[in-house]
Structure formats: structure tokens, C-alpha cells
Task: structure prediction
Amino acid sequence: MMEIDTHRVVDLPASREVEDVAEWLRSCPNIRIVSRDGSVSYKSAIEQAGMDIQQVSDRFHLLKGLTDAAKKFISRLLSANFTLPTEASHYDGKLTGDYWDKPIKEDSPTAEHNANVEKKMKVVKQVRELRKQGFNKGEIAGLVGINRATVAKYLKEDFNPANPYYNTTIPSKIKPYAETIILNELVNSYVSDFEEDLQKTDIICYTVAQRLNMYTPLYYLLESEDGYRSSTPAKHWRIRTGIAQSDTSLTTEVNLALALQNYGGVESVDFETVWGQKHVKAERTGDSTTNFIAWVNECMK
Result:
């Protein structure tokens, strides 16, 4: 949890689960505004907290939503209509076997897909059990932390938790027409408009480009960047990343750690990768909260 104006970390809740976040919010009765992403779980947690909190979208997801909307608008301007023929998937939900039909360990994509299916089925069973108990769709959505449309989908008898596009091939819809599609008119019409919008500033005189740079630590740490030494990094850093994560490239944390180690003024960089864990709270031993507090105490000695 961060303070919006100062961007300083104020606390680290136990988890991102609805109940834990709601409990944390209730412990801070002075909160009036929350800037969050589009997660339904956070929305449910704020509502469960029973507090008069105004919810706003954070800048990153606001820009992402604007970008997605612009993409859709531009796509509608294209004269050609394209279809997306999807070849039939040969995935049957079974574990991978070798040529002699001896069971072997699942490959990473298959293992991840099967784990996601199992995780989704647990939520599906929870939704259906709540329905049997007499809860309506809105109540189920609030209890589970999903939206009403997803509840309705999970209640259908023919619902299949497997991703229909897993192990399928979608041919390129642009490549066959690459030589005939001309976007000159579109480019000429909108380049100047976009350039004007990108130069607009917010209430503290930052442009969109400056805001995007502020999301990138390397902008301030690398000598090749314009933002080099325009900010003062913390003296001590602790970075943990799970090898099984899918949120960012594994080189993201490595690049950050290397940049910090070579930056004058940074005294220590405690960096470790964690095998078999994902992005959040990855630790080789113990739990993230206890380890983080111990690290902070050690840095303050």
C-alpha cells in the first residue's frame, strides 16, 4: 500500500485476498480515496470494508484503457474485415506422454495451463455451492470477489474451465493483406492529434512521457538515460523474484539489480531468485512479511 501524493510505501498487507485487504482497510479509518487497478477483488474488498471510500483508476491502467480504446477505434477505420479462423486444438486435458506412452513430467506451458484449470474449478465449485445455499448472483459475486457475468458463466452446466485457445494456432489476419493495406490517410489524420495530446500536462506539469518514465527505475539508474541521477534512490534494496512468474520477463529484476549494484550511492542490493514460485511474495525460506521486517531491521543497524 502506497500513499498517493508521496509515493511512499506505508504498509504491506498479509495478502491480496478480499478478506485480508478489507481487514487492512478497516484498520485505517482515515482513508478517503483509493487508487487501484481494475481488479474486482479490490473492489469487493473496499465494499466489504464498509467505509465511505472513493475509488479511482490508477494512471497506468487509465492509460492502458485509453490505448485499448484507441486500438479498437483505429481497427474500425480499416476498410477490410478480417476473420480469425482457429485451427482445432489437439489438447485433451491429459498429461503429456512420450513415444512409448510412459508418463513424463508436464512441460511448463501444460503444467501452468493445468494448474490454472484446477484453480478455476475450485472457484467454480465455490460459486455453485453458494448457489445451492440460496445466494443470488450479486451476493455470490461479492463473497467470491468476481463479477456477476463470471458468476453466471460458472453456473452454466456446460462451462469448460480450459482455455479454448490453449495449444491452438491463430493464423495472422494482417499478413495476407500486408501489401494492399494503406494507412497513410489514417496516419496523416491522427499523428498531429496524438502529438498534441502527448504534450499536454497534468496538474503538476508532467507530460504523459514523463509519467511513463517515472514507472521505469532504469530511467533514473542508467547513465544512458536522460533521467540519470535526477532522483535519489534508496540506499538499501531487497529484490525477490519467482522463476515461475509470468507477470514480467525474468530479466526485468536482473537488470534492476545490476543497475543498482553499479550505481554510486546504493550501499546494498539483496537480490535472489526463487525456484518454483511466482511473482508475489516469493521467498526461499520463511514468509515474505517476516523476512522483509528482518531485512529492514538489519539495514537500520
Notes: The CA atoms of residues 59 and 263 lie 28 Å apart.
